[in-house]
Amino acid sequence: MDAVPMAATLATPLDHSHPRLLRGDLSKRHTLAEYVADGGYDRNAWSMSPSDLRTLVGASGLSGRGGAGFPAAVKWERVAAQPGQKVLVVNAAETEPGSAKDRLLLLTRPHAVLEGARLTALAIGATECVLYLPERRQQTCAAVLAALGELCPTSHLRWRVVGAPAAYVAGEESAAVQRANGRRAVPTYKPPRPFERGVAGRPTLVHNVETLANVPLIARYGSDWFRSVGTHTTPGAVLVTLSGSIARSGVCEVPAGTPLVEIIEGLGGGTGDGFPVQAVLPGGYFSGWLSADALHAGVRYVRDDLGRFGASPGSGAISVVSDGVCGLYQAAALLRFFADQSARQCGMCINGTAAMADALGRILRGAARPDDLSQLERWATRTLPGRGACGHLDGAALAARSALQVFSSEIQEHLRFGSCGRPERLVLPGIDPKGMSIYDRDERRPFARAHQPAALRPLRVLQ
Ligand code: SF4
Predict the structure, then answer these.
(1) Mean pLDDT for all residues in the chain
(2) Same domain for 149 and 194?
(3) Which of 322, 337, 352 is the C-terminal boundary of a domain?
(4) Which residues line ligand 1 (CB under 6 A)?
(5) Are 189 and 177 in contact (CB under 8 A)?
(6) Lowest mean pLDDT segment, chosen from 54-58, 264-268, 402-406
(7) Cα(393) to centroid(ligand 1), Å
(8) Which domain-ending residue is among 264, 287, 322?
(9) Which of 337, 345, 387 to mutate to test the pocket of ligand 1 (most atoms within 8 A of CB)?
């Protein structure tokens, strides 16, 4: 299903005298005329020089909204400083199962993303823009292509559309570059990083959809306006997607630094089943489990504050688990998901993710081997972190490590009785009760298709 996420119309605490990403009617795609009438393609923004644009984005403090939170201006400068023609990749893969924010932007505000891409291409000197679109989401692709068709052809920027396969690691930036180069969409060892050698061997900037959608607003209203919400370390607003045990699931926009409890209670309406919050994955499946104690301690939704609890805002996908379901059941299914979604390139990842999933599965069923718990702790803290070509193995290790802390009392109950008494009902999105991923339901063998011609290979080239 490719529909607009339901809670996109949630009230947000933003000051609406200032436009932000989810402003206005979110029930349909904005045409180019509607986007321009709303302030898009501002004359002053487009009169800036490339270096002025880079300076402005640096002053705004915009950070990447795809997961790593890296300063956008640093990435821009690195690419701009390289010799030769540059490439920009719009990473719209959004393979995080609990995230719908990029899909919402592409379905309803595609011109904000496209203008952001054009301004960014201007700032870094890119002559080609690759749109890396999720090939399983046909409505999303159609909305972007319709918007692309409304643009005037330009002689200095070539657009190319590449399909992102349905696989968790396909959204990693080096996997996007691989796919744009006609290869399997799996991460590569670094160096070289994309800014050194990326698409067609050229210096390449890979940016997330939400990151790019912020660029026209910064160019139009300035860095001080952008910083008027958010925190010193993460200025601006962020899009979050609420899922799991939540009364109102969907996408909403909050100033960075908003207390997480306000997002869950105020915007999401709290847990849907009336039980208190047991645990939260605050930023996608690689962001680490957060206990309810952290919520009660007032943890704010920003990287440095979540980091105090060993978690991160990641891609903004907030999955809530209430006390009405077994938390350890969610944690075990999540480890199975990581094992299932390994790109199977690194031995440590293939064996390590499977071993952790097996061990926690045995603990869950009350059939643990004597050393399962100690081995799981050793693998998650010492053996596996930093041993994969990408962050997938680190994400799996963090999911295991944080689960051992957050669900420690449940683990003891499962070890003794084989159950904690709570229903084993899965609330995490995108994983079925057997721990397999949605990708297997959508496409039985996610990587098998990567060798075939992409369904969306260049549909339109404007030049
Ligand atoms: S760490 Fe895992 S997912 Fe990442 S490249 Fe290696 S095998 Fe693939």
Answers:
(1) 88
(2) yes
(3) 322
(4) 169, 186-187, 342-346, 349, 388-390, 392-393
(5) no
(6) 264-268
(7) 6
(8) 322
(9) 345
Residue 14 in any domain: the answer is no
Residue 403's H or E segment, with its range, is: helix 392-406
Q: What is the total count of domains within the chain?
A: 3
Tell the residue nearest (CA) to atom 1 of ligand 1. 388
Please give the distance, rounded to the nearest whole angstrom, from the Cα atom of residue 1 to the centre of ligand 1: 28
Handedness of CA 271, 283, 335, 397 (dihedral sign): negative
> What's the rounded Cα separation, in Å, for the pair 222 and 171?
30
The closest residue, in CA terms, to atom 8 on ligand 1 is 343
Q: Are residues 281 and 357 in the same domain?
A: no
Question: Same domain for 314 and 347?
Answer: no
pLDDT, residue 434, reads 62
* Residues 50 and 128 both lie in one domain: yes
- pLDDT over 80 at 460, yes or no: no
d(CA 150, CA 232): 38
Q: In sequence order, which residues have a C-beta less than 8 Å from that of residue 441 and are 6 or more positions away?
A: 432
pLDDT at residue 4 greater than cutoff 50: no
Cα–Cα dist 431/341, whole Å = 11
- 398: phi then psi, degrees, rounded to nearest 5: -65, -40
- Cβ neighbours of 82 (radius 10 Å): 18
The ipTM is 0.95
Which ranges of 200-326 would DSSP assign to H, the alpha helix?
209-221, 223-226, 260-262, 292-296, 303-307
Choose which residue among 173, 338, 342, 348 to substitute to test ligand 1 binding: the one with the highest number of ligand atoms within 8 A of its C-beta.
Answer: 342
Mutate which of 189, 392, 437 to test ligand 1's pocket (most atoms within 8 Å of Cβ)? 392
Phi, psi dihedrals of residue 306, rounded to the nearest 5°: -60, -30
The CATH number given to whatever domain includes residue 270 is 3.10.20.600
Question: Which atom of ligand 1 is nearest to 188's Cα?
Answer: 5
